[in-house]
Amino acid sequence: MKRLSAMVRAHSDAKGRNAVERRSVAREVTACEEQMGELDRALPALAANSSAPFAMSVRGKTYRERAEAAPVLVDSLRQAHVEGKRYGNTKEFPIAELRGVQVTASRMLSGDEMIVRLSVPWRSRSIQAKDFTGMDTASVGLVRRVENMVGDTPHYRDELNRRHGHALTRIAELEAVADEPFEHTDALRDKRHRLDTLTAALQTSADSPEAKAKETEHQQRMDAQGREPGWSLALNPTPALRAEFGDAELARRAGHGGGDSDTRGLVGAGVGAGPGDPAAGQGSSGVPRAVRLAYRGQGNPSTAPIGRAEDVLGRRRTRPQPGDRHRDEDRGR
């Protein structure tokens, strides 16, 4: 029953993960379709300008040479890096325009880098701040990066198409197993029926007149002996305590009565007997054997309260003595 119940929970968890993944893949399909639609509208203009001479607009001015556009583009990126310190990635700053595509940049404060994006769907690129803050203004490397981003836009359309196809395939696979029933449903139903039958039979047996009569008899016997469930060992001794002290001695010491709960618990341990009393399991020192074993960490620790042997024997000290710490350390060794 436990194994089948665990299998049912695992099957339910699997169905939940299936539903979550289907929603995630469905969102990816929607995003791919939207980006492909935008690229389909922008690609004709990009293809028409692909063979045109180089022309990059920075800060409203068009540059026909890469060497002329490079220092202005680096300076524009540096300025966006400085201004982006107040906004982080929440604001994008235009840094250039190439082939009708707007190029923007935003600052990532966590890594101190600039994220470069295009106005058409495309993968963003990160540029570390150290790459352009120490860059030679005459270098055309940054211009080449922007050109490659715009030039690779048609290839990104093909990548979106592949992602869209993989997502559709994955959705079909998930939907095919989404409604599969639990394979051990019949066995689980039978075992649950048997368990319910046994539970009902046990409940009926517990509520029967014979069971109630036995419970009443047990309670009367406990009341006659002055015992309560969970009471101290003096009034409800364990079999081990009976074997060590004997029923007669335990009954005699249980008749002491009075005192707090600690005193009642000590009666069954033999505290109060004279030195050398064999019935109480004491030696020549007058300390009961059960108390000595419990104090040393041996035997049944429930036969005596936790504390020093002097406290167990009733000679409790009101304040610690100077040599207590050294004696405790010696005992620890």
Give a description of the structure:
With about 325 residues, the chain is α+β, with helices and mostly antiparallel strands. It folds into three domains: about 1-50 and about 160-175; about 55-150, no CATH class; about 230-325, no CATH class. Helix content is about 55%, strand content about 10%. It has helices spanning about 1-50, 65-85, 130-135, 140-150, 155-175, 185-205, 210-225, 240-245, 245-255, 260-265, 290-295, 310, 325-330, and strands spanning about 55-60, 60-65, 95-100, 100-110, 115-120, 125-130. The protein has a six-stranded antiparallel β-sheet. α1 runs antiparallel to α5 (about 155-175).
Supply database-style keywords.
333 residues; 13 helices; six-stranded antiparallel β-sheet; alpha+beta
